[in-house]
Amino acid sequence: MHPFTYTRVASTREALDAGRRGGRYIAGGTTLVDLMRETVEQPEALVDISHLPLREVTATERGGLRIGALVRMSEAAAHPKVRTLYPVVSEALELSASAQLRNMATIGGNIMQRTRCTYFRDVTAACNKRDPGSGCAALEGHNRTHAILGTSDACVATHPSDVAVAFAALEATVHLLGPDGARTLRFADFLLRPGTTPNREQALRKGELITAVEIPALPRPLKSGYLKVRDRQSYEFALTSAAVALHIRAGVIREAKVAAGGVGTVPWKLPAVERHLIGQRPSAALWAEAAAKAADGARPLRHNAFKTELLTRTVERQLRVVGGTQ
Questions:
Q1: Which residue, of 50, 68, 87, is where some domain finishes?
Q2: pTM for the whole structure
């Protein structure tokens, strides 16, 4: 591990001053410390923000939910408002990592975590995300766990967060605070597809700090849930996953929010699936027809072509679980 300075701040003002000078924010540290140990990340200065007042879960005036950036994953998963209003978020969190990590990791840190691509974490391998212009070893290497959606010739790494898939499905917004003041971004605009600049993963400006993630109010009753398919039952990243939220009234689907994980370079919203559902009555045939659109635009690699069919089946199964067959 390379030498670095460490500063603990007590206010957002102190944090922004340190961030403006190039300091890297750290809270739970469950990802960044690992990357520093592996010399993938070599920050010169760490700014400990774990004591900032960003640890509340509150209802918004419009009926949504705002989750502070420093709320622990375990705290968010267990919060009564999260469990009652958006079980898809609770389930995604509970299916992430181990209990020990969930007790340390924060919501802000989770959506900021970097890919689990083995080539990214191997400093001897070519990786445009880690070393721009060096190439992408995964394109011709072992790419079974890599992305089939949103890829480019520069990068095919998946985004590893489970709860980010739920936030993408629910069309959340990210609240930011920086040297130029506060702003909000749609979750869909916060995480960036690789394109030709895979090293730029979030739409953050220099020194900006995540303060909260806000889930908008959605029509009630709302049924939601998260399904994660992986090689083993626990402590494993998704091969595919599906976050589904449905508003069904008078036997008709009025709202549908669907996103997939484990298959995209970012959490992958599925608007074609959503459009096929709205205005229809739940049925086994409908779930199959809608899910068939989940892999539209997929570009499978040598070892991960199975993900196309697996994604379709994952989405269909979760639509059936959440929506039933009235």
A1: 50
A2: 0.97
